[in-house]
Amino acid sequence: GRFAQVSGMTYVYDPSAPAGSRIVSVKVGGEDLDLNKTYKLATNDYILGGGDGYSALGGGRMLIDAANGNLMANDVIDYVLKNGGVTASVEGRIKTVGN
């Protein structure tokens, strides 16, 4: 828990730094994070509800609920059946410094 898996962004963190100060840098779409900009993100209802300590996302709004969207697990199954599998690789979206 508490280790965000991301897409479309990268971040560098220092696990030896105190909690709340571990993020060293963040890039969104290859550009430095702009603290004056509003970003949109997609997540699941668990994280939206503050799960894993992500209370900052508690004010978010659910756009697609269970009654109006697909179950993600079913979408993954459909993708694998259609495409014959997934090749996993380390993409470098999350990097560690310090230690």
What does this structure look like?
This protein has 99 residues and is α+β, with helices and mostly antiparallel strands. The chain has a single domain, classed as Alpha-Beta Complex (5'-nucleotidase,  domain 2). Helices cover 16% and strands 16% of the residues. It contains two helices and four strands, in the order E-E-E-H-H-E. Strands 3-2-1-4 form a four-stranded mixed sheet, with no helix packed on it. It starts with 8 loop residues before the first strand and ends with a strand.
Give a short overview:
16% of the residues lie in helices and 16% in strands. By secondary structure, it is an alpha+beta fold.
Q: By helix and strand content, what is the structural category? A: alpha+beta
Describe the global form: globular
CATH superfamily: 5'-Nucleotidase, C-terminal domain
CATH topology: 5'-nucleotidase,  domain 2
Domain tally? 1
Strand neighbour order, sheet with most strands: 3-2-1-4
Question: What is the count of β-strands?
Answer: 4
